[in-house]
Amino acid sequence: MTKTLIELARMTDDEARTYLESLIWPNGPVCPHCGSVETFRLNGESHRAGLLKCKACREQFTVTVGSIMEDSHIPLTKWVLGFHFLCSSKKGMSAKQLQRELGFGSYETAWFMSHRIREAMDSGPLEKALKGTVEMDETYVGGKPRPGDGKEHKRGRGTSKTPVVVAVERKGKSQAEPVKHVDTKTQKAIACANVDKAATLMTDELSVYPGVAKGFAGHETVNHGEG
User: Fold this and answer.
1) Does 52 fall in a domain?
2) Which residues of 138-161 are buried (b: 16+ CB within 10 A; e: fewer)?
3) Mind listing the pLDDT tens digit for each residue in 160-196?
4) Which letter does DSSP use for residue 147 in this model?
5) How many helices (H) and strands (E) does the chain have?
6) Do 117 and 10 share a structural domain?
7) Taking a C-beta distance cutoff of 8 angstroms, is the pair 106, 85 a contact?
8) What is the value of pTM for the model shown?
């Protein structure tokens, strides 16, 4: 059922979770790990809110698992409002405006949310875009250095150019994002936001990638030095 902005703004976190479940699972919960509909809720005092378990594969999950909201610390109430703002705004909404409307403490959080929602609008209902074998690497983008400026211009890591992280699904879609730093935290956030947990990451031997690949189905590397 479509809700008004006032109704969405009054939601508690539990109500937001129920609302998202009705949108993502209109016919009842579906296990994101194996696709089974044989699931049940875990309502014990020690279980976190919204936790379900699959009878087929025995895995636990919530409505955010397998979606663009997975591994996000943003409250579900703000995700619901973010979806509403970006989907209902005829002229679009900038990340800066979204930051103001939702009261985010940082621009990066608003940018992360707006980018994920726009990606979901292009790729399907709240689903991550990249599956199967996903190749992930970084490149550096910028203008050619001016000759005679007296500066050292490196071509790879350590350059003053803007780093761009690229993830490519083999024979499928790709995702590229400019970043401030090439480190485990940044790469992990991009991978979790764009790549399905059942995917295998293919990377080079950069030290950040073992940490990035934790939680995914597999991780393979190539040695560029061997040509």
Assistant:
1) no
2) bebeeeeeeeeeeeeeeeeeeeeb
3) 678 888 889 888 778 787 877 788 888 888 888 788 8
4) T
5) 7, 8
6) yes
7) no
8) 0.55
